[in-house]
Amino acid sequence: MIRVCVDADRCVGHGRCYTLAPDVFDADEFGHSVVRVEEVGSELEAQAVAGEQNCPEQAITLFR
Ligand code: SF4
After folding, report:
1. Which domains does the chain have, with CATH numbers?
2. Which of 21, 31, 60, 63 has its Cα between 20 and 30 A from that of 1?
3. Dihedral sign, CA of 17, 61, 34, 47?
4. How far is the CA of 54 from the centre of ligand 1 (A)?
5. How confident is the model at residue 12 (pLDDT cuts 50, 70, 90)?
6. pLDDT at 16
7. How many angstroms does the Cα of residue 52 sit away from the middle of ligand 1?
8. CA dihedral 62, 58, 15, 27 (to 10 degrees)
9. pLDDT band at 25 (very low <50, low <70, confident <90, very high)
């Protein structure tokens, strides 16, 4: 399992994470990221990694 965390202080709402990984991330009413699934299994790992690697603010951390 991988634990997914978004640092709300870093997130500025580019939306890349929830566009690339809609099963793991969602948007709040301001366009900032919300974690939908805090503990992802292998079926969502690729999405979680895509979100982490494509966040320009390094706001997403994955704990393995
Ligand atoms: S890609 Fe990064 S900055 Fe953009 S909404 Fe997602 S967490 Fe926030």
Report:
1. 2-63 (3.30.70.20)
2. 31
3. positive
4. 8
5. very high
6. 98
7. 9
8. 50
9. very high
Answer whether 2's CB lies under 8 Å from 40's CB: yes
The answer to whether 62 and 2 have CB atoms below 8 angstroms apart is yes
Which pLDDT belongs to residue 38?
96
Q: How many angstroms does the Cα of residue 16 sit away from the middle of ligand 1?
A: 6
Nearest residue (by CA) to ligand 1, atom 3, is: 11
Ligand 1 atom with the smallest distance to the CA of 51 is 1
Question: Backbone phi, then psi, for 39, in 5-degree steps?
Answer: -125, 105
